[in-house]
Structures are given as C-alpha cells and as structure tokens.
Amino acid sequence: MSERSERTTSADEPSPASGGDDAEVEQSALSGSGTGDEQLGDATPLETAHTPDRPRSGSVGDRYGRKTTRRWMLPVLSVGVVVLGLIIAYIGYKQFGPKDIDPEQLGYTVIDDSTIEAHFKVTRTHPDQAAFCFVRAMDKDGNEVGRREVLITPSTSGTVELKTIVRSVARPAATDIYGCGGKVPAYLRAG
Question: How far apart are CA 89 and CA 78, in angstroms?
C-alpha cells in the first residue's frame, strides 16, 4: 500500500473536514497527502491574492499603477463651454434681438395688375434720424415682381405708420417689407 492510503487520523488529531487547522489543510492539499477523495486528478493548488509573498491590495491603482490625473482639464473645459455659450448668445441677440429699426407689415391693397399699395409701420430707437425701407411686391408664387425704397423722415414719434405704392411687372398678390436701414442713400434724401 502507498503512504497515502495508510494515513489515518487519530481521535485527538483534528481532521481536515472537521474544521481543523487551516494551515494543515492547506499543507495537506499542497503536499498531495490525504485520501483519494480529497484530491481530484492532477489538480494544482490555487494561488490566492493574499498569500504572504503577494499582499492584498486596496485599490486598482496600487496594483496597476496610477493614471496621471489632469486636474486642469475640468476647469478649462468649463470655461470653454461658458465662453462658447456667451458667443452663441451674442450672435443670437445680434441676429434675432431688438433692432434699431423694426418694420411691421400691416396690410396691402391690390390696385390693378401692375400696382399694389403697402401699409406698414416702422419703430425706431432714434426717431430723430432718417431711415429707409425696401418694400417689395410679390406675385402669387412668392416671386418679387416690384420693389421700392421708401424714405422715413425724422419725427418726434418712435413709431410711424406709412402707406406707399409699389409698381410691378406682373400682377402683384402681396407685399413684403424686405428690410430697413439707418444709412440713407444720397438719392433718397429729402430736400
């Protein structure tokens, strides 16, 4: 018989299955001693992370090395996002915010196949300065068929109501206030 099968436990020696000394159980498993039931085939002992030559580590950084942190990244990105937001807000305000000269179409009347009357009002932040507006005549498909520049003379009121006649090359169906400006061309000046 082999030494393995001759091994027996005495009554005063704790058996590995009965919760004896862990070191003895581990030694028994490592040395290959014990009964055939305790060791299955050619299994190798498992190494654990807390063996004496490899202490248990508390964090991933201790095991694999620490990644360099870029503490400046968050503040720089935050400032960048704020600056970008301010730029977008400024562009939006300039594009869609209140204008110095703000026209509003009130209506129109088709007079004949080549004439239309536009009715509109203009609100200015500086009513003491002259301004001008482009008024367009549009056909039923939305194409421009006539255009006129209208001088808005200085006044005491911030808002003035105007009517103007626009000649067209085809039957007009509507009018449109294309835009207004404060730099009046020399040929539109009254006087």
Answer: 17
